[in-house]
Design a protein that fits this description.
Order of helices and strands: EHEHEHEHEHEHEHHHEHEEEEEEHHH
Shape: globular
Largest sheet: 8 strands, mixed
Number of strands: 14
Distance between the termini: 43 Å
CATH superfamily of the largest domain: Dihydrodipicolinate Reductase, domain 2
Number of domains: 2
CATH class of the largest domain: Alpha Beta
Number of helices: 13
Length: 350
């Protein structure tokens, strides 16, 4: 008996949306029924490539189709109400990171998904990177004694970004939210939500008035996990070449992860183990969709991976960082999660 395919559509055909459409079209478990983008020509050319229907109106795609899941790559400012409509039509949602523009909006989507009994998941690409997977496996299988420092760096480089990402109202945040969500997810997933977050952020706008209305292009985030573990994250799109780094310092070992390598060394600098990987974005997107598909095919056995509820932890850290930048004081993600618990009527674990 042939297994029923998961009928899906992709909302937003930016670079990531194109990768998700390609991955969905390649996987046997999905049937790509439609794609949509505000650029009519792009929507039509992509639909022609995969033999599906093109839309330049997000609402029309949702109203004219009955889908098992909707993959959302478009900016939230252009489709927030359409996602809610899709949820009310019982479409399961896979949202490209970040979850939303702010914590409150993310919590609203999580609550609506629970009310409608649908699956709401977040596409955290780094969870399917071979190098970051090697880190998770190493931490699970080996004892890294007395980890005391986590160092993270995300330099965006000269990647072009749409103009709306500079607007606080449309974007919700700059490099911290838009470019570091996956890195923060790695820190929270492999360790835990920090007890305190202190953050500073700036942008390179020409005058003070302009800087008040533009999202940050450079940020520094300091995290206290407990009395023996702290961490920091530096991120910017204002200088340098693209760089992604996560470094974990233990009493005897240092673990270093980049986009393509996982290294274990000692404090003298001697390399104990080094692995080099060559996975690419298409491969990671395929793995991501395969994992999401398992929650449909094995619904009674496979827990939803990277759920919206789980990603509220990441959003609480980011919300705390933006709040700290305004108050010039350390902030506590737990307090933000407690607020969501009250709204949801049930506790959210930390």
């Amino acid at each position: 008996m042939t297994e029923k395919k998961i009928t899906t559509a992709v909302l937003g055909l930016n670079d990531k949306g194109q990768l998700l459409a390609e991955a969905a079209a390649r996987l046997g478990s999905f049937e790509l029924a439609a794609v949509a983008d505000k650029d009519t020509g792009l929507a039509e050319s992509t639909a022609g490539k995969y033999g599906c229907t093109a839309y330049d109106d997000y609402r029309q795609l949702i109203m004219q189709n009955q889908l098992d899941c909707l993959i959302v790559a478009a900016g939230m400012h252009s489709c927030d109400e359409h996602i809610k409509t899709a949820m009310k039509k019982k479409f399961n949602i896979l949202k490209l990171a970040p979850v939303a523009r702010d914590f409150e909006e993310a919590a609203e989507f999580v609550r609506l998904a629970e009310d409608e009994g649908i699956k709401f998941a977040v596409a955290n690409e780094l969870r399917f990177s071979q190098s970051f997977s090697a880190l998770a496996e190493f931490l699970e299988q080996h004892s890294v004694e007395q980890i005391f420092l986590i160092e993270a760096v995300c330099i965006v480089g000269d990647k072009p970004a749409p103009q709306w990402q500079s607007d606080w109202k449309l974007s919700g945040g700059g490099v911290l939210l838009r470019n570091c969500f996956g890195l923060i997810d790695q820190i929270v997933t492999n360790f835990k939500v920090p007890e305190q977050v202190y953050s500073l952020n700036i942008n390179q706008a020409g005058d003070r008035q302009q800087r008040l209305y533009l999202t940050e292009d450079t940020a520094l985030l300091t995290m206290k996990f407990n009395d023996t573990l702290i961490g920091n994250l530096i991120t910017s799109k204002a200088f340098g070449q693209e760089k992604l780094l996560l470094k974990i310092y233990g009493k005897e070992k240092i673990l270093t992860v980049t986009n393509s390598t996982f290294t274990v060394s000692d404090h003298s600098g001697k390399t104990v183990r080094k692995e080099q990987f060559r996975d690419n974005e298409v491969t990671r997107m395929k793995k991501l969709l395969e994992k999401y598909a398992q929650s449909f095919i094995l619904s009674d056995k496979s827990k939803l991976y990277s759920s919206g509820m789980e990603n509220l932890h990441n959003m609480a850290v980011i919300e705390s960082a933006y709040l700290s930048a305004r108050t010039a004081m350390p902030e506590e993600p737990a307090r933000i999660l407690q607020m969501a618990s009250k709204l949801a009527g049930k506790p959210i674990s930390i």
